[in-house]
Protein 1
Amino acid sequence: MAVKVGIERVTKQYGGEGDAHFVLALDDVSFALDDGEFVSLLGPSGCGKSTLLHIVAGFEDATQGTVRVNGKPVAGPGADRGMVFQDYALFPWMTVMQNVTFGLRIKNLPQRECERIAREHIALVGLAGFENRFPHQLSGGMRQRSALARSVANNPEVLLMDEPLAAIDALTRNALQEEILKVCDARDGRPRKSVLYVTHSIEEAIFLSDRIVVMTPRPGRILEVVGVPFARPRNDATRLAPEFQQLAGEIWSTLKSHIKPN
């Protein structure tokens, strides 16, 4: 399988050594995201998961090391990478339709084509009939569905997701996990999405991922890479399987042994 994103010995520090505000956020991190693979970055708050995702997105530069997408070094944001944020990042003055068509219009696609693609993805995330609603008229889960539709509608090669469900209630969160898998799966001749996903939920990482990159507390290093053995599609039966709970327990034990009490 071809490598879609290569992360090679990435270190990120803020400030200089000896500076009172010096922070070593990431230390010598290397792994690859293969084409069509779903990989989660899992670890405690402050371990550098989001920082690494922002470096892949091109929002920040690594202090040392290289990130490559399709073999080319990342030099800034690009249309080959789509981002879904925790806080939705929808334009509040735009409707759902206008938000989802925003990136498509930047590509100078005809208006009718923009609306066709947008309606397809709005329906895919379960928001058909809400095209003309504004973000403030939607629940948190519906806003995140809108943000997901907007990112996937642009058809990026890599989807980057930064704790997109952290602010969602538990029941809606489970439903949205299934929506994410549905949206990222192969369909209509399109290949399965390559996804790099940040979470601090062990269960969420297991449910969504092909592999989980478990990170240490700051400075973020790779503690282990865990393969997830469950077949797709996944559903509530997956979550209830004894093997699922056993794997969650094993990952928690590994993390717990590296978390120091305050």
Note: The helical segments are 49-57, 96-106, 111-124, 140-153, 170-184, 202-208, 236-240, 242-256.
Protein 2
Amino acid sequence: MQSHSDTIVALATPIGSAGVAVIRVSGSKVFAIATALTKQALKPRHATYTPFYNHNQQILDQGIAIYYQAPHSFTGEDILELQGHGGMIIIDLIIKAIIAKGARIAHPGEFSERAFLNNKIDLIQAEAIADLISASSSAAAASAMRSLQGEFSKKIGALVNSIIYLRTYIEAAIDFVEEEINFLQNDQILQEIKKIQENIKNIQYQAKQGSLLREGISIVIAGRPNVGKSTLLNCLSGNDRAIVTDIAGTTRDVIREYIIMDGIPLHILDTAGLHDSKDKIEQEGIRRSYTEIARADFVLLMTDDLQKDYVLLDEIMQKIPKTAHLILLKNKIDLQAKKACITQTEHAFVISISAKTGEGIDLLKNKIKSCIGLQETNEGIFSARSRHIEALKKAENFLQNATHTLKQKSYELLAEDLRLTQQALNEITGEFTSDDLLGKIFSSFCVGK
């Protein structure tokens, strides 16, 4: 059973051989452990070069010890940081010596969780630490740093303060209805609600951009056999990732490739050709193709004959998610002496390309960026997760209810809608968060964080 009163220890640097390893200890027993390990009383926030001893007074290693006295530390507790040589045997011996003095191995994310519980950071900032560590591009790292520095938190805090301002007047009007107090009029309340709604929409847009930088998008390349799907995958990735032949059914399974396009992570999936087949292996490949189509963010339907593939287009349109984007790619223009271009039908955009020569690929990339609303600059975008976007959507829905209850002059229901709006926003920063959600969030962290 995890206890936040325990003293915890973990390796804060990656496992493996290295020049330097960092071991972190946090909790009430840190000062005693530090004194026993170094045989001296460490001065807070000073780097001390010292031997590290075990319980038998043997020197295990020598390096830098830094003691951070509570509450002036990352976790808000006493912290000891040991910087020693990065050999796994040495690290193991030092950690065992620390455990012998009363510490236990930390759970994943427990240092960050303690920082959150001790009000050193909010939940957005805690998640931003994990996002910064796992950032897959410079843009994602920059957005995570903005969240860590509190930009997202400040925006949510401003929204909450606006809600509290409204709740104060409305609940006072309910409680002191017979008093001669100058309360806000209905049109003033409505204007304030609309202002908050607009701010939520702006934050939602930024959060979606941040989520995109963090999680990336799934792009499924679909179409009949031999239309150039694997060639397109190779073209986009810059590698000969998929086998390309003129034999139908060469690709029988989903091939996945991960690339970065202008800072956006793309998960590109090349799928088996969609057609009627009696081959059991091909049938399974086609089934998997439709499974990926049904959960894609983008579907690129490739064809070399639009008229022939309208039936397939209708079939795919019934399977793709409502939120997904569909682009028709008319391939092999190099064989028809045609130019790359974009047109639009009632169903989707049509981009004429040559996956073999690369002509029109820039048009495709720009259209993808346009569809997902990617800004030319990522300045001001902060790291965000799906749960943040869901909470903002909940807040937006509660505010929409509030406008209806205001028109009906149901002030008690209006007050409740505003309370629920505030609660939804507080879920983002962690001021109102269930233990189950905390466990789920911090369990995804690495052990030393």
Note: Residues 217-371 form a domain with the Rossmann fold fold (CATH 3.40.50.300).
Protein 3
Amino acid sequence: MATLAVFCSGGGSNLQSIIDNVSSGRIPARIGFVLSNNSVSRALERARKHAIPAIHFSGIHYPGPAAYEQAMLKLLEEHAIDIICLAGYMKLVPAQVIRRYQGKILNIHPALLPKFGGKGMYGIHVHAAVIAAKEKESGATVHFVTEQYDDGPVIVQQCVPVLPGDTAEQLAERVLAVEHAIYPEAILRVVSGKASMPKLN
């Protein structure tokens, strides 16, 4: 059975969807721990409520990037993590971690990548940009993580219409509902071997 680590920064609603799908047996995996760079993240509360180890892990506790990176690798190895799921994680995952877990790190993004991805495109900023561009549709994407922001191969994508008069908040709410549906599906595909990362040149 695969062991997941879920990295979060905020409220953890996608984490809750993952927990629910693991608990129901839909995803044949266990969650080894939940990690957040934010000590007051609600995601950590959600983890504790379900008796999942909740870890506050921040670069401020380490003397430099190399020590931070090594500590993260050690943590992942100690918990025998197979797959890392980024669920609203606002920090860049260290390069050595991405290389060690290539094809085993997933991220969810609130837009139809490659549109509206990259640095600065997160949270409400994405939805505001979609509306400003007068797009007719948006959506959510689960993709494999590479060393570039939002640049990895897509695993699952689902569209959401942009309705006349939509605010960024209204669009965000509809996209989030889709995120909760497609992230467990993407994890299931990877865990079951139905999706794997293509070799990158």
Note: The mean pLDDT is 95.
